[in-house]
């Protein structure tokens, strides 16, 4: 078999090796397989995902459908970003304006993406904050008690997702910095990667009950 590509960008991705991150986390939660190593494993998952997203952002790609269900785990439990069906190359633009009509992952989407169909690295950062919530809640979906319409109706209220039970305060602060209403005020993937690369500081409050942070408050890193 011979194939030839002309003036076309190619993206090579790995096929599913073990499972997706959402199923793996739910398996831990439902089987109650909590160990003293779990916090460090969750932190490594977080670091894997932000590392992959930083790479995509550096290459001017927006994923547009970042969620734990679209993150694949290999047999070494290394996270790989998957499902690029909605991904787009920004080229020289700062954001991508969608004209597509298709089902949307509402609970993972930034306000500007939901309201104006504008996608950028900053909207992916918002989704990453939701992935952090999925990871540190050990497999719960964001806004489980709300319908998609209720989430949309509350966009203007600057509603901020509460922390998962027991989540380290520093981790929740990173989530909140990803959910700033103003896209330019959100943390970047580079800043998030730098913060997540400091395990001792982040895990210090693992058993502290998940203290909250005000909506719009950022980490400053």
Automatic annotation (TrEMBL):
PANTHER family: TYROSINE-PROTEIN KINASE RECEPTOR, TYROSINE-PROTEIN KINASE TRANSMEMBRANE RECEPTOR ROR. The keyword Kinase applies. Residues 1-203 form the Protein kinase domain. GO terms for molecular function: ATP binding; transmembrane receptor protein tyrosine kinase activity. It comes from the Eukaryota. This is Ephrin type-A receptor 8. GO terms for biological process: cell surface receptor protein tyrosine kinase signaling pathway. GO terms for cellular component: plasma membrane; receptor complex. It comes from Geodia barretti. Keywords: ATP-binding, Kinase, Nucleotide-binding, Receptor, Transferase, Tyrosine-protein kinase. The keyword Oxidoreductase does not apply. InterPro entries: Kinase-like_dom_sf, Prot_kinase_dom, RTK, Ser-Thr/Tyr_kinase_cat_dom, Tyr_kinase_AS, Tyr_kinase_cat_dom.
